[in-house]
């Protein structure tokens, strides 16, 4: 991120009589600035200082509130994912016990459910999540009842499995609800920050308007001093937080500069904490993924016994999907970075048609399982962008089409050139996207009613769109009579922007 320097503009060389008067006043009476500007400050003081003081106090109060809310948001997000992961592990343990009847697995389940119940209670204690507390407590109560029944009668295992599976399905809905709550809090603080910026800008504009009727000397001096405040406020409003804010001039303006710089540091700290939280969550997800990959690898190696050719293929699919999920987590981290700086992507010349062929090859088994037919024409086009990011866009679009295509359906691919961009169209024959879901289809974790039966978390399209935008391209959903039609646009290599 960059920030507009909060410094006073360099002195200009004036040639009018007002300029000579200003220079003379500043040279002859350098210590009487306040006295000379008394009239102007009397007129300007009330709207200006009241607005600045109020904004400073508001900023001072806003930062701790914002920090607390962001901490709650981070905790809510973390707990939501942990509830989801705990339920996943509990469900897996019960399935293993059903097959193996190993009592040590029940011990593992007890440990895991204890952690889950602890997380449920912690989730319910977060003030921001008060609307979801009763729902989570009800989940904990129903699971406890089912587990007590199982303790008394092991034949109740099926009921316990049913309850845990139902709760696992609800966990995704809770994650979506948590995201909605945290997003609402973020927008609220964003609106407050914007209002603070607007109040300061209005105050400065009024002060300059009043100063216009005063002496030209006062107008020029005061105008130059206030430009630093304006630049600092605009930089804060635009979330440009990297550069230090330093205002020159009288002590009061320097004090305002220090308070604005303090606010900048607090906002930067909150942003860094949010980024670290996402990285922590992603790190926590990597542990069970590693276990899954290791387990599938052991199966493939025959540690649990020889596998049939079909079982070997299934184990390979498990390994491949675990690897793709790992790549998805890494993509989320890249997406977080891309939201703040598009410079993180190193542009390279990439043959997009070859990249599409590579993506089709990796997803050949998934398409073959549904007996899908993939047709289309791919023009030999070279684009500028990051290879991994572009591959993620293509993979997610093709994977989305495969998921929602009916058996024996057709997926149509088209790669053409349009002016300065390469246009990739992916069309399937699935259920399509209802008009009511079109505006939300690219939102992370959003899944419409028609997608509930399809595995996934609703991240693919969101990641693809963010990576397309980060590469100065676009991703959109086009109207289609049958199925869904997505169009990705990426800049061509060797074409001036």
Continuous helix count: 13
| Average of per-residue pLDDT values | 75
Radius of gyration: 30 Å
Question: Which strand order does the major sheet show?
Answer: 2-4-5-7-6
How many beta-strand runs? 7
Tell me the strand percentage band: 5-15%
| Helix-strand pattern | HHHHHHHHHEHHEEHEEHEE
Poorly predicted spans = 1-33
Please give the domain count: 2
Derived structural class:
alpha+beta
User: Shape, please?
Assistant: globular
Largest sheet, in brief, is: 5 strands, mixed
Seen as an oligomer or otherwise, the chain set is single chain
Percent helix: 55-70%
Ends distance: 22 Å
Secondary-structure blueprint:
Blueprint: H1 17-28, H2 33-36, H3 38-100, H4 103-125, H5 130-152, H6 157-211, H7 216-237, H8 251-300, H9 309-338, E1 348-351, H10 352-362, H11 364-369, E2 373-378, E3 382-385, H12 387-404, E4 410-418, E5 421-427, H13 460-470, E6 474-478, E7 485-491
